[in-house]
Specification:
8-stranded mixed beta sheet, Rossmann fold
Length: 240
């Protein structure tokens, strides 16, 4: 009997399972993930006050690009995802790289019930726009992090500019991503993200945009520009 989970879109999972074998190829459909990884890794490392020695959860880890990077910074990392093939690729890559990461195929809500307050840092990168209920994921992340710990989200803003750049430009004109990677209707405005964060024990302390220059083919962080891709840092309130 196949288990079903309320907050999993199997069509979204299937998109990434079909491409899983190419996850670690920096010239494949995942080139953009490889290109932005140093930026988001540094953002997380700075925001958390360093990753070394900390217990870290990477929610929606896919093939493990960010998970391994955080482990290389000294973190004790668990990566979770609902795609069996990406997780298999992630496991195989640790055998090649020698980087120690624990991977599990488990919904974040289930893990939150199992291990509340168990992580110093929780990351959820480019995942919220692929699930039916982003608020449920955010609530689970809030329950998983310890008081005083940090949670990091990244997602896509919803406006005409993001549609033109992230969907039309990236998928159809520049071919940076496979066509159909994103559903524009699921993009999340910063105010919506913050509204889902506020009922939890998290508090948003930073939002920063990520911009792409098609001429130089480089990415930059820009706190003044949240128009397309953006990242958020949250801290879990203490219990006293």
């Amino acid at each position: 009997m196949t288990e079903t989970y309320h907050n999993v879109d199997q069509a979204e999972i299937s998109k990434f399972e079909e491409l899983a074998s190419r996850w670690w190829d920096p010239h494949s459909e995942f080139k953009a993930l490889h290109d932005i990884n140093p930026l988001r890794l540094d953002y997380i490392d700075r925001g958390a006050g360093g990753l070394a020695g900390k217990r870290i959860l990477d929610v929606g880890c896919g093939g493990g690009i960010l998970s391994e990077s955080m482990a290389l910074r000294g973190g004790r990392v668990m990566g979770i995802d609902m795609g069996a093939m990406p997780l298999r690729v992630a496991d195989l890559h640790t055998l090649e790289s020698g980087v120690e990461v624990e991977y599990r195929r488990v919904p974040v809500e289930t893990l939150a019930a199992e291990q509340p307050g168990s992580f110093d840092v929780v990351t959820c990168m480019e995942m919220l726009e692929h699930v039916p209920s982003p608020a449920s994921v955010i609530d689970a992340c809030a329950r998983l992090v310890r008081p005083g710990g940090h949670v990091f989200f990244s997602t896509l803003n919803r406006n005409p500019k993001s549609f033109l750049l992230a969907v039309v430009g990236a998928e159809y004109v520049l071919g940076m991503l496979p066509r159909g990677t994103h559903d524009y209707s699921r993009f999340i405005r910063p105010a919506e993200l913050d509204a889902w964060i506020r009922p939890t024990r998290l508090r948003t302390i930073d939002m920063t945009g990520m911009t792409y220059n098609p001429l130089t083919r480089t990415y930059h962080l820009d706190p003044r520009n949240l128009d397309v891709n953006y990242l958020a840092t949250c801290v879990r309130e203490t219990d006293d």
